[in-house]
Amino acid sequence: MSIHQLSAAVTQQRVRPGFLQALCLLLTLMGLSAGAQTLRPGYNRDVIYQVFVDRFFDASSSNNYPGDPLYDGTGSNLQKYQGGDFQGLTAKINYLKNMGITAIWVTSPLDNRNLQAIGGSFAPYHGYEMRDTLKPDEHFTTSSRSWQPFDAFVSAAHNAGIKVIVDFAPNHSNIRGSGEDGRLEANGVLQATYSSNPGGFFQTGPNMGGSQWDSPYETQYYTIYDLADLNQTNPTVDALLKAAVNNLQDHGVDGFRIDATKHVNWGWQYSLSNAIYSHQRSFVFGEWVADDSNNPLYGNMRKFSNKSGIAALNFPLFTRLSSVFGQSGSMVSLNAVVEQQQADFVYQNDLVNFVDNHDRKRFLTVDTSSSDVAHLHAALSFVLTARGIPCVYYGTEQYLQGGDDPDNRRRMPGFNETTTAFRLIKKLSDLRRDNEALAYGSVQQRWINSNVYIYERKFYDSVVVVAINKGGSAQSISGLVTSLPSGSYGDYLGLLNGVSLTSTGATGGGYASNPLSLPANSVSVWQRDPSSSVARLGGVSPTAAQPGVQVVISGDGFGATQGSVRFGSTTAAIVSWSNQQIVATVPNISQGPKALTVRRAGSSVNSNPFDFSVYQARLIPVTFTVYNASPTVPGEHIYLTGNTLELGNWASSGYGAVGAMLTNASTYPNWWLTVSVPAGRNLQYKFIKIRADGSVVWESGANHSYTVPSSGVGNVNVGWQY
Questions:
Q1: At what angle do helices 266-279 and 235-250 cross, to 10 degrees?
Q2: From CA 263, how far away is CA 548, in angstroms rounded?
Q3: Looking at the structure, do residues 378 and 516 belong to the same domain, yes or no?
């Protein structure tokens, strides 16, 4: 079939579940992919750069459309398009490479709303008003919506050693009630508008407000800012969204940032991440805004990040570091968040940390002190060395300021490669690449007061110690103990008034250091990274998958010659092998947690284990509804548990079981929840009530039984058994 015949076939039919997946596969087989994905050591070694394509660099005037009321181009109206494009990103790849950037998170390339909507001529320059799931936007590419500029950008990025992450917004299409009325197409074929809403394509709830932002029901089923809210459990919507991400992967995309994960059906997203990982190797993280652990949905965020396959953008850490570095807060409170997250998150080194963000005022606008640039350098140093993956917002390295949206989305002011911030990012990116302690290590506070934070990252014998003094005067340090063996350690940075450290004899918990003085507004970094002849496993992505899925295993000391990987006692097939990264295929083994280990060639010793979860099969979203559930009072909730890993393996705790399920005033005592479960498998399950004190009330009678469909979505409705 020619590409013209393929386009005709698409035009002649409404997209059905399964059709788009077949389309994407055919595109790949026809050689339309943008090229192979990169195979560098997993994302824990990366420094991500977030860029608004429209605000970065304009390299093609042909896609500016000066007669369009949605276009400005002067920088005076930041609610309109300013002309940046993927051609501009391609032109500036060397700038990013020279800064040490190894992954770039870009605006969604997918086609967005074109017509004016509620509130006047506010353009979707940000990429969050999708109108076509398979075509790119003409403002970022060409008037014919060609993928060529995006493909060229991906190729240029890969050639420079930079991975490509795209923003993806599965929560909504575009503004309802005006503009294009939520219109969504697939390769130009109309799927639905909000007014037509075929088969419950959209959720039709009101806009959220007040406390509803932190209510499990309203936050998933109500609407944000009149953006037409997609119903992911509609089979067509499910197929469209999964085909969209798979198509982007076929264009060479290495990862996804999922927009508004708190507002997308939580249970469905497990199947989304599984669809991504099943199609190609990837990394997925998402935006769940919870400013601190006091947020009512913090526990849900923690559970979602630990189990869904979608790591979290670290808003709790951002909130605290912004107050500490930008508003004279205490380092003690920053360390408290670090220690809490060590306990709360299973994969702490996958959390994505940031100083600046497109939804918050920029740091240099928040910090109005005379030391604001010095404080920014300190905050950047922390993010680039803390556990987790650092993300730099475009322009931070050029000291770009900005208030609330859209002022925090100003045009890129220039590309000066000599700023201290630029050189700082480069220096610490190199260290993250070279020293495994930053990628995979634990974190331990070694000395602290309100202005000084000395912390240690450690991965076996690899050690990085960071000393930050954000105060306006020098601080004398005595009694410092680290894991750096006896010797003298110069300041690795050489940029921020750092000093040397002399480590003396061994003492309890490490090695004592001579007294030293940290200058005002200084950052010192001391490190050692001996070579390893022992396999040391640092990270695995994804952390859960079914047999047949490829997983990326990162660490050090694997050796140049292929050894073996085991899931439990079963040896896995090896796709590729290097000293720092292995790609292996999940073997055909039973479901449940397995200890993943690596063994060097010629060795009889396994690496440290990594807890990997094996699914039974590809995940399918199924909505479970239980009628007339056991009566509840405030503080009590209904959960689902059953005989598979995906259903909690009969767990009866709030963290282990699936849920809490949802209800509201109009549906109580009926409860429902979407859960991603293994395709084609027979489930045995029950509903339970968990009281506020943790005690459990089980349903009576035999287990419920349900066979999951082999594709698409499912629904099951049963009554509570008394």
A1: 40
A2: 31
A3: no
Contact 473, 520 (CB under 8 A): yes
Among candidate residues 387, 414, 437, the one where a domain is terminated: 437
- Choice among 129, 287, 350, 456 that is catalytic: 287
Read off the pLDDT of residues 24-61 as tens digits, 9 standing for 90 and up.
333 333 333 334 444 456 799 999 999 999 999 999 99
Rounded distance, CA 251 to CA 246, Å?
9
Cα–Cα distance list, 75 to 91, 177, 277 (Å): 20, 29, 39
539, 555 in Cβ contact below 8 A? yes
Of 614, 635, 652, the last residue of a domain is 614
pTM for this one? Answer: 0.94
Tell me the per-residue pLDDT of 595-648, one tens digit each, with 9 for 90 and over: 999 999 999 999 999 999 999 999 999 999 999 999 999 999 999 999 999 999
Place of tokens 């989305």: 409
The structural domain count of the chain equals 4
Is the CB of residue 569 less than 8 Å from the CB of residue 27? Answer: no
Give the separation between CA 352 and CA 345, rounded to whole angstroms. Answer: 12
Structural domain harbouring 602: 536-614
In a domain, 320, yes or no: yes
Annotation says 259 is catalytic? yes
Q: Is 287 a catalytic residue?
A: yes
For the domain that residue 698 is a member of, what is the CATH number? 2.60.40.10
Q: Which amino acid is at 80?
A: K
- Residue 185: pLDDT band with limits 50, 70, 90: very high
Q: Which of 229, 259, 350, 456 is catalytic?
A: 259
